[in-house]
């Protein structure tokens, strides 16, 4: 069945790869971005030039008014949405717990946790049969860090992804009878800009040897799991996770 999918943080990395793969399935995609309009326009433009359907939509997922406007904007331009990928996320520079300040904790939890909640809420209000919706699917992008803890590096980030995991399980059960499936993916070490932004370019290459499969993953390998979980092929799958981590 054709879908209309909002992908938060679709301008780069895993989100951009998900937008491309979803479009290849014939789905219409809304590519959300916060700052990088040029990158988002490139992602959507390439999809449209290849015969697909895509629009871009600005919005900071951690800001309630932005999220409301984002969903309204997409629906005005594309019609009723059928799926959401909560992909937008940030990682800050490596630091031990005793070096973390509250401003950083607020930033990390605002985007990774509050952003996921706000977008999930808007999606549920539209998809739930309780509100006259036709059902749909949500995929939350978590991290293997949620399970491993990222000791000495990014415990704040790992804890925020732990919250995303709990949101995934709780929300899945809450809305299962309302036609909405909710699942998560937990990427391992994936080659994207996030590591350079986190202060460590080359991190994936440096740590590749610690991955059982002896390599980092690509955004496309994560996108494949996300698109499958959104698809009707996963029609009896909810409240669970696909780890895309090379066995990490
Ligand atoms: P990138 O840094 O490549 O891309 C992040 C995307 O998120 C960008 O499109 C950025 O948009 C967007 N974004 C950031 N903050 C906000 C915000 N407040 N509102 C809206 N959009 C925002 O990261 P990845 O592709 O690597 O990461 C995608 C997801 O995968 C994240 O949730 C990350 O935590 C998770 N992940 C990644 C792993 C990896 O190894 N790469 C491993 C495990 C999980 P813009 O540039 O316009 O601001």
Automatic annotation (TrEMBL):
The keyword Plastid does not apply. It comes from the Bacteria. Keywords: Oxidoreductase. GO terms for molecular function: oxidoreductase activity, acting on CH-OH group of donors. Belongs to the short-chain dehydrogenases/reductases (SDR) family. NCBIfam families: PRK06123.1. This is NAD(P)-dependent dehydrogenase (Short-subunit alcohol dehydrogenase family). It comes from Deinococcus yavapaiensis KR-236.
